[in-house]
Amino acid sequence: MIKLNIDGIDVEVEEGTTILEAARKVNINIPTLCFLKEINEVGDCRMCVVEVEGRRGFATSCIQKAEDGMVVKTNTEKVNSARRMVLDLILSNHDRKCLTCVRNGNCELQKLAEEFGMTDIRYDGEKGGHEIDDKSPSLVRDFNKCVLCRRCVATCKNVQGIGAIESTERGFKSCISTAENRSLNDVNCTFCGQCIENCPVGALKEKDNTNEVWEKLKDKDAFVVVQTAPAVRVGIGEEFGMPIGTTVTRKNGYSIKKTWI
Questions:
Q1: Measuring CA to CA, which residue among 63, 58, 75 is closest to residue 36?
Q2: Separation of first and last alpha carbons in the chain
Q3: 44 in a domain, yes or no?
Q4: For burial by CB atoms within 10 Å, which of 13, 34, 194, 236 has the most?
Q5: Minimal CA–CA distance to 89: which of 57, 60, 118?
Q6: 187 and 172 in one domain?
Q7: How far, in Å, CA of 77 to CA of 158, rounded?
């Protein structure tokens, strides 16, 4: 075990613990964007920077290991100024059509902008202008909303074991894409949707066929069949008032899809 001080609070943690984890242990909030515990711990976004007494520059708390006797400050004027600058740069190349975005009100970038009072973009300039990839039957990829956190890349590669997407190019041209910039429909993507689950913004979303379904339901000559996917056969039961964990493939001898219709 090692001891350190964070914002005047003494903390004792196991050796190898990061500053971020140590801070969270005592309920000290350090903002993050690219961090995904045990999946994407790379320190790319720099939103989690802190000051360490006696050291030059800032420490990236999500990857910097805590040391015995370390004195950390997470909420100084310099730290918050650096975080605002990082956030400003991210927003400068972001498609800020928040009101029409699927993640409006549930976006990590939007939440950070609100927390830091971002009412003006100082570094607003040229934007990438990437085409939206909607060829997949399940996913829509809009790199214009990407913040290059690489959480989707880590999830696809390290959790799902697929590696359909990767970071490509350098500098301003850096982007998250596929081999030869092909559509997700034309690579080894399995359409599992885990990249969507871990994307902090609206760069990845599910393809929405709600309008088509309503049109078919209105069509008196069409027979509409509803079938639940295996992944939701348990969770969806809660929406119908069933006990948590109930398998809804069949209920009282009747298929749940018959109950739905």
A1: 63
A2: 59
A3: yes
A4: 34
A5: 118
A6: yes
A7: 37
For residues 136 and 175, membership in a common domain is answered with yes
Domain match, 202 and 226 both: no
Q: Position of tokens 């059509």?
A: 97
pLDDT at 231: 64
pLDDT tens digit sequence for 65-82:
999 999 999 999 999 999
Ordered DSSP codes for 23-51 = HHHTT-----SS-BTTTB----S-TTEEE
Nearest to 83 by CA among 108, 49, 55: 49
Q: Identify the pLDDT of residue 254.
A: 44
Contacts of 13 (CB under 8 A, 6+ apart): 1, 2, 4, 21, 22, 25, 66
Residue 56 belongs to a domain: yes
Q: Residue 31: name the closest of 87, 69, 71, 72 by CA.
A: 87
Q: Per the structure block, which two tokens stand in for 104?
A: 């409006």
Q: What percent of the chain has pLDDT over 70?
A: 93
* CA 128 – CA 207 distance, rounded (Å): 23
Domain that residue 109 falls in:
90-206
Would you place residue 241 in the very low, low, confident or very high pLDDT band (cuts 50, 70, 90)?
Answer: confident
Asked whether residue 85 is domain-assigned, the answer is: no
Q: Please report the DSSP string for 40-95 in residue order.
A: B----S-TTEEEETT-SS-EETTTSBP-TT-EEESS-HHHHHHHHHHHHHHHHTS-
Residue 230 has pLDDT above 50, yes or no: yes
Note whether 217 and 185 are same-domain residues.
no
Element (H, E) at 123: none
